[in-house]
Design goal:
The complex is a heterodimer of chains A (about 300) and B (about 700). Chain A contains 11 helices and 10 strands. With about 300 residues, chain A is an alpha/beta fold. Chain A has 2 domains: about 250 residues, Rossmann fold, CATH 3.40.50.410; about 35 residues, no CATH class. In chain B, strand 25 and strand 26 form a beta hairpin. Classes of the chains: A alpha/beta (about 300), B alpha+beta (about 700).
Chain lengths: ~300, ~700
């Protein structure tokens, strides 16, 4: 029996990524109780009196028995949803303050989502960005075997670790181009630490194209609380910058800047109608997954259907 | 700069400690790969400079603190020239000579220089320590000096605190000589004189050094500023000035500029405390000029106090000078020529007339009428009232010059006149017969006459001068001899070849020999006859028996004699008295005499202090100003004696503050006890370093806290 809450650090000790993904999903689902699973491809909508041309298999025989009339079940026929999982695999995502690296946390989150989506027979694709040379794209597929391929790629990206300083903006633009005809669900797991806010702009652009967009803003707790003390040399992950400093001297200023950054991200994404989730890496993954699912369920079928 | 413990400088190697800590600290810094470094960099851009500065300051402070510790332990010191006097603590004898001349009242920044001098002297006393035997000698002229050294430093400090500028010039040489005397009585090997003085040239006499080679060590405490400009009134004379009216007088004020810069000063003349005239003078550097004021004395008075003042400067005491101005009283003299000649210069009275009326001027103060012995018949009472008659009452003094013995009735007549207050001067000559004088003239003489002696009788011409007699032992305090010093050459040089010897005293009172010849014989004898006086001169008044008449002393002697006989002594304003000098006051018939001077200065002469004296000596002239005299006669009447009032002024030498040259000072003797003269002093710096170290530690703590 899996614990109700799975510490991300404990999760890391589990076996392969598919197992981890399943553990996360089941952990999340066990917490949902009566929560409905959305994303099924065929859903009942209403009855309609039979008219010639309607498919007979949709005739509701039980109703005919009751009222002696032919009624036809009308269904909201959802086309198979394309889900693009975008993993920011830039060097900054390799930061691990004390526990799990942001990249690992983001990867596990997306793996769980992929697991869940494939189970719902949605098509799931993966884009891992960060280093243009190592950019990985897995086209969306809905087969069960696709899950294995996708998780393998995801696992290799996580194993490789973060590299490069390219923001997810380019990858997102590519998704926008690929899914021009069909709306898609785009889930971005990133720390959003690109210097020019390009990612936020592209996300807003995607949303403007009626794509469903969710953002997992993955940050390390050390980045949020800056708990350092004593003379410390900070080294950038995406550049060669170094800074020897007494953290206590700049902590207040740093926290103010971080708060401003979060406010800016939250504000910009909310303004664009984008689902935003601040996700510290010490937070249980199933809680993150559950929050994401709950938030999507609140959006309602229309939004989910596009 | 040097170090008392230079080995401790090895501690400077400790400078490496904070540097090493700094570098190691940088190396030991925790390395954190941080994603949000952009935020840190943005933060750092704002604080980096401050932080870097703080780090560097911290390093510098720690390095300096380490260096300060090592340097302080090495006890650094430096040497510098001593600014103050060389004072060595310990057993010794020392005398502080303090300049308290009136120049010490010179105002520097509104305070007398003497204040600085006494403060420095107190500092020296403190530095010398309790084992030092000390004395304080004032350098003003005539100041009282201590008789011995003392270890009672508290009393010395009290003396210093009580010290005030005197009104006398400096006599530094005398004070140094006294200091040397005091030190010579001490058994200490180290003997030092500390001279705290303005070093005015006038106070030092190079021809009379205070000590020889074995004298004490001299330490000059030079508190004198570079410049001491001073303008002073150095003299004030007053004379009758007929051109300014019957009450006209002329005041001649001599003003000296003792500074190196030109000066323009305002003068004012005050008579009886009322300013009556003003003027101005422009003086070149070191120039003296005389300013003449013409004024009239107030009506109804024959004498008044007058003063001339100039714009007060830093030394105000010499900016005013006083004088007694008076209208001269003429002495009426009846000269009786006992040996008239047609050749003028052979006449018995040729020289006396010239002496009493020099230049035959109206303002000589003397009116003279000359008659022959035969004309004395005119004084007969029967002839009184006739045109040719001679009224003795119209004369103050009668001079009988070589007059043969008069008939008794004439003598009685003259004697009565003398008893009533007249004065008579009798001088013998070849026409005087002592025997005849004994017969009739004794009522007019203090002593009888004997035959004259000729000291040159039988001598060769070349021995004549050497056998002559001279005047000696004159009563310098007597009003007649006031103009003369005790050794006045103008009197002593006169040669007397023939003199009358004197016999027994007569029935007169208060007989007094005022001068003698070198052979001991009386030369000038005074006595009282009733209210009058008689003077007997034992030689002739012309050149028959002596050559006094051609000596400078003859004129003042005769003038003073007739004025004394007429009770009219020195004309007002003629005699100048300096602060500290004694003033001889003629008592006449006064029973009580009171002198009132500036506040606190005065004296009362009565009883034994005045009885039987023809004069008293007043010495409390410590301050300049006018001293009034109030006399009480035998009848009990008390009134101002204007003729006795006198003015006291500063000795003008004291106003000249020209600095003495090094050579004017006596050489420092060997009294230093063989101690090496150390002109430099060591200043230890480790105290300052220790203080700096504390400050650095404080700064370091503040920097660490930030």
């Amino acid at each position: 029996m899996l614990p109700e809450r799975i510490d991300p650090s404990h999760l890391a000790r589990l076996g392969s990524l598919p197992i981890k993904a399943r553990v996360i999903v089941e952990g999340a689902l066990s917490g949902m109780h009566r929560a409905k699973l959305h994303g099924s491809s065929v859903e009942f909508a209403e009855h309609k009196e039979y008219s010639p041309g309607d498919e007979l298999r949709h005739v509701d025989w039980k109703a005919y028995a009751k009222v002696d009339r032919y009624y036809v079940k009308q269904f909201e026929q959802e086309s198979q949803l394309a889900i693009y999982l975008v993993l920011d695999a830039s060097a900054s995502m390799a930061f691990a303050g004390g526990g799990m690296a942001k990249l690992e946390y983001a990867g596990l989150s997306l793996a769980a989502l992929a697991y869940l989506a494939i189970q719902q027979q949605d098509k799931v694709g993966l884009v891992a960005c960060g280093d243009r040379a190592l950019e990985t794209i897995v086209p969306p597929r809905g087969r069960t075997t696709h899950l294995h391929d996708l998780l393998s790629v995801l696992d290799s990206v996580m194993t490789r670790g973060g590299a490069g300083d390219e923001s997810p903006a380019a990858a997102l633009q590519r998704i926008a181009e690929l899914s021009r005809r069909r709306r898609a669900l785009v889930v971005l797991a990133s720390d959003l630490m690109d210097t020019d806010d390009k990612t936020l702009e592209v996300l807003a652009q995607l949303r403007a194209q009626r794509h469903d967009v969710s953002v997992l803003h993955v940050l390390d707790p050390h980045e949020l609380s800056f708990p350092y003390d004593g003379l410390t040399q900070f080294e950038a992950l995406e550049s060669n910058h170094k800074l020897l400093v007494n953290p206590a001297a700049i902590k207040r200023d740093y926290l103010e800047r971080m708060e401003a950054f979060l406010t800016r991200c939250r504000g910009a994404l909310a303004a664009a109608g984008i689902d935003y989730h601040l996700t510290p890496t010490d937070r249980p993954l199933e809680a993150t997954l559950l929050e994401l699912l709950v938030a999507r369920s609140r959006l309602g079928p229309a939004r989910r259907a596009g | 700069m040097g170090f008392l413990a230079p080995l401790m400088l090895a501690g400077l190697a400790g400078l490496l400690v904070p540097i090493a800590i700094h570098l190691i600290g940088r190396r030991r810094a925790r390395v954190v790969k941080f994603a949000a470094l952009d935020f840190l960099l943005a933060t750092k851009r704002r604080t980096a400079r401050r932080l870097q500065l703080r780090e560097r300051l911290l390093l510098a402070v720690r390095v300096i603190a380490c260096a300060a510790v090592a340097l302080a332990l090495a006890k650094p010191f430096t040497s510098c020239e001593r600014k103050g006097p060389q004072v060595t603590r310990g057993p010794q004898a020392a005398v502080l000579v303090i300049d308290d001349s009136f120049a010490s009242g010179y105002l520097l920044d509104g305070k007398p220089w003497l204040g600085r001098a006494t403060a420095e002297a107190r500092h020296i006393v403190q530095q010398l320590g309790p084992e030092a035997e000390l004395a304080i000698v004032r350098a003003s002229e005539g100041a009282d000096h201590p008789t011995e050294l003392t270890r009672d430093h508290l009393r010395l400090r009290d003396q210093l605190l009580a010290l005030e500028p005197s009104a006398r010039p400096a006599d530094t040489t005398r004070a140094l000589a006294r200091a040397s005397q005091l030190l010579s009585a001490s058994s200490h090997a180290r003997k030092t004189v500390y001279l705290v003085s303005l070093l005015a040239k006038h106070g030092l006499r190079t021809d009379d050094p205070p000590w020889g080679k074995d004298g004490p060590a001299l330490v000059v405490v030079d508190l004198r500023p570079e410049e001491l400009p001073n303008v002073a009134i150095t003299a004030l004379r007053v004379d009758a000035e007929p051109g300014a009216g019957t009450r006209g007088v002329a005041f001649d004020a001599e003003v000296a500029n003792f500074s190196d810069a030109p000066a323009t000063i305002e003068l004012s003349l005050a008579i009886a405390d009322k300013v009556v005239a003003r003027g101005s003078l422009s003086l070149a550097p070191l120039e003296r000029k005389t300013k003449r004021f013409l004024a009239a004395l107030p009506s109804g008075t024959r004498a008044a106090d007058a003063s001339v003042s100039i714009t007060p400067d830093a030394l105000a005491i010499d900016d005013r000078r006083w004088v007694r101005a008076s209208l001269r009283d003429q002495v009426r003299v009846l000269l009786v020529d006992g040996d008239p000649r047609t050749v003028r210069h052979d006449d018995e009275l040729f020289y006396l007339e010239a002496a009493l009326r020099p230049g035959d001027r109206e303002d000589s103060g003397t009116s003279v009428r000359t008659i022959t012995a035969e004309e004395l018949a005119g004084i007969e009472p029967a002839a009184k009232g006739t045109a040719a008659a001679i009224d003795l009452e119209s004369f103050d003094v009668i001079v009988l010059a070589n007059v043969a013995a008069l008939p008794p009735e004439r003598v009685n007549l003259i004697s009565a006149w003398v008893r009533a207050g007249g004065g008579i001067l009798v001088a013998p000559g070849d026409r005087v017969d002592p025997a005849a004088y004994d017969h009739t003239m004794l009522p007019l003489l203090p002593q009888s006459l004997r035959d004259p002696i000729d000291t040159t009788w039988g001598a060769q011409a070349e021995d004549r001068d050497s056998r002559a007699l001279h005047l000696v032992k004159w009563e310098a305090d007597h009003p007649i001899f006031t103009p003369f010093s005790k050794t006045a050459p103008e009197l002593a040089a006169a040669k007397f070849f023939k003199v009358s010897l004197l016999g027994p005293t007569t029935a007169t009172s208060d007989r007094k020999v005022l001068a003698r010849f070198t052979n001991g014989a009386a030369a000038l004898v005074e006595a009282s006859i009733g209210s009058g006086r008689t003077l007997l001169f034992a030689s002739t008044l012309d050149r028959d028996w002596n050559d006094l008449a051609i000596h400078p002393g003859f004129l003042p002697l005769m003038q003073q004699a007739v004025r004394h006989l007429a009770r009219k002594h020195a004309a007002f304003g003629e005699t100048e008295h300096f602060v500290g000098s004694s003033v001889v006051l003629s008592t006449g018939d006064l029973k009580k005499l009171e002198v009132r001077g500036p506040p606190g200065l005065g004296a009362v002469f009565e009883g034994d202090r005045i009885a039987g004296r023809s004069s008293v000596r007043f010495g409390r002239t410590e301050r300049p100003g006018v001293f009034r005299v109030i006399g009480t006669d035998a009848t009990g009447n008390t009134h101002d004696r204007d003729e006795l009032a006198f003015a006291v002024n500063l000795d003008a030498r004291g106003g000249d503050l020209t600095r003495a040259a090094e050579t004017d000072l006596p050489p420092s003797g060997t009294g230093a006890g063989g101690l090496p003269v150390d002109t430099s002093r060591r200043v230890e710096l480790w105290h300052a370093l220790a203080a700096a170290l504390l400050l650095l530690l404080l700064v370091e703590g503040l920097l660490v806290q930030r």
